[in-house]
Amino acid sequence: MTMYVPQEFAGTTPGGRKVLLKFRQAEFAERLAATRRRMRERGLDALVVFAQESHYWLTSYDTAGYVFFQVGLVLADDDSETVLLTRTPDLRQANVASLYDDVRVWLNAEDANPAEDLRAIMAEKGLQGKKVGVEYATYGLTGANARLVDKALEGFCVTEDASDIVRTGRLVKSAAELRHVRIAGKLADDAVRAAIKATRPGIPDTVLSGAALTSMLAGGGDIPSGGPLVNSGSRALYGRGIGGPRLIEEQDQILVELAGSHCRYHVVVEHTLVTGKPDPRQIDMLKVAGDALDQIKDAARAGVALGTLDDIHRRVLDDAGFAKARYAACGYALGCTFKPTWMDVPPMIYSGNPLIMTPGMVFFVHIMIPDATTGLTAGVGQTFAITEGAPEVFSDLPVQLYCC
């Protein structure tokens, strides 16, 4: 087995603290500078960062601490310090593995209100009366914490939703990011192969999930930020994973959708497996799904509106008689993400989405046909990057019905 253990890079914060980073320091400097340019274009004096993906992309800070109140402060001035407000369990990794200049801690107590601590930091930085963007659209800011923030900043400064500021930069991947994406694709393919190899009647379908995860971790990957989704039998028509194992039968179907993850960058693949004798109707369904996927990849070109891809999805499936079975969207963007999901949205791939595809954008497209009338399912999916020509597909596995 090939192992893809990621490299770490030495760096130094402006204050002189030595740190280890997931990318070269120059790349983080470019990301921060571009983010600040977008902030100034919007007239923002500062950005309050709650998305863990933003922490990671801007500073290399990698943690699960975003499930609590955790916030970064980025001022629009190029020479200003960045500040992180977090909890004690995250202090060490913030200090040794992130480029945050100033790391502060708030302490749990019955009367603790970290939003007021944030306001105090903002007052230190001269932000009273200024215009500040807030990352609201993230799992890193619960509704309860958002209410605390809004109350603490009411009358102190002018706020607006700026959830798109960092996300806009993250949408187009750099060459260094794409190297991790390519490795994630290899890990995903290996995980599917491991799941196929493990498949046999009489075992719980969770054995397939275990084989897939073991393969990814042994290959130098991370535990992905979602899944694996391994649904068998009637569950194969579900659009989400479900808790509790099910025994695979002699004649059965299994939908496998999983992500390979390398340095938090994800590649998703989807395949349909069967035990016993394949149903001819299911073989035909897979041909329809595969045809739709091929046509979408042919159309995925720089300069084309993203919604065009879902137009194809709808046309091919509707023409084949699956209008009632298909989904209302056929995929989404991928990137560096944290639990609870590998979906890096927006953008979603739905008909009418006006986003123009540009080189470096990475999308997962899946064609799912859960046919409730027959009880059969057909699901295929691949991840690709937009280039100057044909998309770069990050999977080598054939798109077919896998008989186990």
Describe the overall structure:
- Keywords: Dipeptidase, Hydrolase, Protease.
- This is Xaa-Pro dipeptidase.
- Residues 31-172 form the Creatinase N-terminal domain.
- Residues 180-388 form the Peptidase M24 domain.
- InterPro entries: Creatin/AminoP/Spt16_N, Creatinase/aminopeptidase-like, Creatinase_N, Pept_M24, Peptidase_M24B.
- This protein is an alpha/beta fold and 404 residues long.
- It has two domains: 9-170, 3-Layer(aba) Sandwich (Creatine Amidinohydrolase, Chain A, domain 1), CATH 3.40.350.10; 172-403, Creatine Amidinohydrolase (Alpha-Beta Complex).
- Helix content is 32%, strand content 22%.
- The protein has ten helices and 16 strands.
- The protein has helices spanning 25-41, 52-59, 91-96, 114-124, 143-153, 164-171, 175-198, 206-218, 280-299, 307-319; strands at 9-12, 18-21, 46-49, 71-75, 83-86, 102-105, 131-134, 158-161, 229-232, 252-262, 265-275, 331-333, 362-371, 376-385, 392-393, 401-403.
- It has a six-stranded mixed sheet.
- Strand 1 and strand 2 (18-21) form a beta hairpin.
- The longest helix has 24 residues, at 175-198.
- It starts with 8 loop residues before the first strand and ends with a strand.
